[in-house]
Amino acid sequence: MFLEVFTAKRPTDARFLGGLNLRHWVHQAFPEGLVQVMDARLVLDDASATNNMNSFLVAAMELDPCL
Q1: 11-24: per-residue pLDDT in tens?
Q2: Where are the domains of the chain?
Q3: How far is the CA of 42 from the CAs of 5, 17, 18, 19, 65, in angstroms?
Protein backbone atom coordinates (compact mmCIF):
# COMPACT_ATOMS: atom_id res chain seq x y z
CA MET A 1 0.00 0.00 0.00
CA PHE A 2 2.97 2.31 0.69
CA LEU A 3 4.00 2.10 -2.97
CA GLU A 4 0.46 2.79 -4.13
CA VAL A 5 0.29 5.97 -2.04
CA PHE A 6 3.61 7.41 -3.22
CA THR A 7 3.32 6.39 -6.88
CA ALA A 8 -0.46 6.87 -7.33
CA LYS A 9 -0.47 3.56 -9.21
CA ARG A 10 -2.51 0.47 -8.45
CA PRO A 11 -1.07 -3.04 -8.78
CA THR A 12 -3.65 -3.57 -11.52
CA ASP A 13 -2.41 -0.60 -13.61
CA ALA A 14 -2.22 -1.42 -17.33
CA ARG A 15 1.56 -0.81 -17.41
CA PHE A 16 2.14 -3.86 -15.21
CA LEU A 17 2.03 -6.65 -17.76
CA GLY A 18 4.33 -9.52 -18.62
CA GLY A 19 5.70 -10.09 -15.12
CA LEU A 20 6.21 -6.42 -14.30
CA ASN A 21 4.54 -5.36 -11.08
CA LEU A 22 4.41 -2.22 -8.94
CA ARG A 23 7.23 -3.32 -6.64
CA HIS A 24 9.52 -4.27 -9.52
CA TRP A 25 8.74 -1.01 -11.37
CA VAL A 26 9.75 1.05 -8.31
CA HIS A 27 12.80 -1.16 -7.75
CA GLN A 28 13.99 -0.46 -11.33
CA ALA A 29 13.82 3.28 -10.61
CA PHE A 30 15.43 3.02 -7.15
CA PRO A 31 17.14 5.24 -6.02
CA GLU A 32 18.22 7.58 -8.85
CA GLY A 33 14.94 7.58 -10.77
CA LEU A 34 12.63 7.57 -7.80
CA VAL A 35 11.27 11.02 -8.62
CA GLN A 36 10.09 9.68 -12.01
CA VAL A 37 7.85 7.07 -10.38
CA MET A 38 6.51 9.30 -7.63
CA ASP A 39 3.06 10.85 -7.89
CA ALA A 40 3.61 14.21 -9.62
CA ARG A 41 1.51 15.89 -6.93
CA LEU A 42 4.25 15.05 -4.41
CA VAL A 43 7.05 16.59 -6.45
CA LEU A 44 7.42 20.26 -5.68
CA ASP A 45 8.91 23.01 -7.82
CA ASP A 46 11.44 23.76 -5.10
CA ALA A 47 14.54 21.62 -5.77
CA SER A 48 15.56 21.41 -2.11
CA ALA A 49 12.07 20.26 -1.09
CA THR A 50 12.14 17.64 -3.84
CA ASN A 51 15.56 16.45 -2.64
CA ASN A 52 14.21 16.20 0.92
CA MET A 53 11.20 14.22 -0.29
CA ASN A 54 13.47 11.96 -2.35
CA SER A 55 15.73 11.38 0.68
CA PHE A 56 12.70 10.50 2.78
CA LEU A 57 11.37 8.05 0.19
CA VAL A 58 14.75 6.38 -0.29
CA ALA A 59 15.10 5.92 3.47
CA ALA A 60 11.54 4.64 3.82
CA MET A 61 11.86 2.22 0.91
CA GLU A 62 15.15 0.87 2.20
CA LEU A 63 13.14 -0.55 5.09
CA ASP A 64 11.59 -3.01 2.62
CA PRO A 65 14.16 -5.79 2.06
CA CYS A 66 12.45 -6.75 -1.23
CA LEU A 67 13.45 -3.44 -2.85
Answers
A1: 999 999 888 999 89
A2: 2-61
A3: 10, 26, 28, 27, 24
